[in-house]
Design a protein that fits this description.
mainly beta
Length: 115
Amino acid sequence: QVQVVESGGGLVQAGGSLRLSCVVSGITDRINIYGWYRQAPGKERETVARISMRGSTDYRESVKGRFTIARDNAKNTVYLQMNSLKPEDTAVYYCNVVIGLDEHWGQGTQVTVSS
């Protein structure tokens, strides 16, 4: 059974930084892609950033230059460093991992950016 656990959310002022972490446990030998998604109240879940097994990354346009995704394969962990945070970044952030052909989601961590 796969478990996906996020941490690192919180309340921060605009312009501040947070680092989210996501640890995957269980069947991890076929992890392909890690991703961070977010969902603000009343809005659909959206992709924030993804990183492949080879380290290729992609970001949604609004976070480019501010957010950085990174993975530690030895620890089955993915990080999201968020700098220059804006109030519009406020959302619940979810970690997603693709293992084989299956997707697994964490429970989410709240990020709130005050103006």
